[in-house]
Amino acid sequence: MASKHQAPRGTFDVLPERARARARVEDAAAAIFARAGYEPIATPAFEDTELFERGVGRSTDIVRKEMFTFEDKGGRSITLRPEGTAPICRAYLEHGMHKLAQPVKLSYAGPFFRHERPQAGRYRQFHQVGAECIGTDSPLADAEAIMLLADLLAELGVPGVELRLGSLGSPDSRRAYLEELKAHLHAHEGELSEDVRERIDANPLRAFDSDDEGTRGAMASAPTIVDALEGEDAEHFAEVRALLDSAGVAYEIDPTLVRGLDYYTRTIFSFVCEGLGAQSEVGGGGRYDGLIEQLGGPATPAVGWAAGIERILLALDEEAEAPGRDAFVAVADDGQRTRAMALVGELRHAGLSAEVDLGGRGMKGQLKHADRIGARQVVILEADGTTRLRDMESGEQREVDTAKLTDELTGGKK
Ligand code: HAM
């Protein structure tokens, strides 16, 4: 019976088959974070709008077009978080984490919201796992961050992953480079898409990201920031590359790499999976040395990344198999239902996955149900108080001592 209600455009329900696959991604990330000392943190699903305006940048697509912003009942402007880095920096400052031993390494998983045009791999509510390493400008932290994401994608078996690496330099060198780039764009104004032309002065780097043919043509001869890197910026980038080389992490330098958030400085990176089509980035991030200061804190360098869970799942194209159950407790007689309920509780306490019929089915119906949920063994409680155990694979049935049932089911392991 279809209801007239549907999940809002660009959102989706996570049904159990998918939920298991998602949990596998989150669990793998949590294990990798724990082994590397990235402590979990959770921030609210909404923040003051100004946090993102200041943090992500007023000229970005995210802030200009994609935020779910509304006024709360007190007239404050609230925004559903489009990303996690600015909120984590807000929390870092709010809770005085700059007074802790640095760097502070944090990890997170949760929903994010962007009012984008929905398509495969692009949703209005999506989920990220991510890591932030706050309080060091060492290239070691950049390399560690990149290696964590590389490990996660490798461990999950995401096929055809490529790592693109770039550097945006520091604000000073970037400023000089941006002037050069703007001059190039102005000289090619006639070839640019309207969107890019309108933002030459506000956000010239986005021109590298354009799908428009004319713009792409004009960008082929544009100066790149990687070529313009100098001094400490160039050194920092060389060290990150050397660390990745010695760790055996393959990457491709992409001098035109840009990201849709304004806070990046120096290293930026993007893991793409070619099989995914237009929305090919499974995860990415970079260094954001100026963000915390921009949010009113002390100058604090940091680096991090986020990966899209839905994109990883699309790339894996899999649904986790149903886990089955260790046991199903069936009753041959309605008088045994109370005993069945107590028994299923005991089995669960012993660490087994076990279910009992909640639907008032007869014996045949219960066996059918046990089969449907993938029960490996069925415990049958007879009217006379005896207990039988049925192996669902072989169909064999034998009488067992109820007192020893847990041992029988765990194979004596408990
Ligand atoms: P981002 O590149 O905007 O970076 O998003 C990270 C990942 O989230 C993307 O690579 C993509 O897999 C996924 N993603 C983004 N938008 C959508 C969408 N509409 N639907 C589905 N998946 C999406 C950030 O958010 C930064 N906070 C990453 C970072 C952390 N940088 C430094 N630290």
Question: Topology of this structure?
Answer:
Blueprint: H1 16-36, E1 39-40, E2 46-48, H2 49-55, H3 61-65, E3 69-71, E4 77-80, H4 85-94, E5 104-113, E6 125-134, H5 139-156, E7 161-167, H6 171-187, H7 194-198, H8 213-220, H9 225-228, H10 231-247, E8 252-253, E9 265-273, E10 281-287, H11 291-294, E11 302-308, H12 309-316, E12 325-331, H13 337-349, E13 354-356, H14 363-372, E14 375-381, E15 387-391, E16 397-400, H15 405-410
Parallel strand pairs: 1-5, 7-8, 12-13, 12-14
Antiparallel strand pairs: 2-4, 3-4, 5-6, 6-11, 7-9, 9-10, 10-11, 14-15, 15-16
Summed over residues and divided by their number, the pLDDT gives a mean of 94
Strand order of the largest sheet: 1-5-6-11-10-9-7-8
CATH class membership of the largest domain: Alpha Beta
Hetero compounds: histidyl-adenosine monophosphate
User: Helix/strand-derived class?
Assistant: alpha+beta
Q: What is the end-to-end distance? A: 45 Å
CATH architecture label of the largest domain: 2-Layer Sandwich
Total E-strand runs: 16
- Distinct helical segment count: 15
CATH superfamily of the largest domain: Bira Bifunctional Protein, Domain 2
Helicity range:
25-40%
Rg of Cα set: 27 Å
CATH topology of the largest domain: BirA Bifunctional Protein, domain 2
Low-pLDDT segments: none
How does the overall form come out from the CA principal axes? elongated
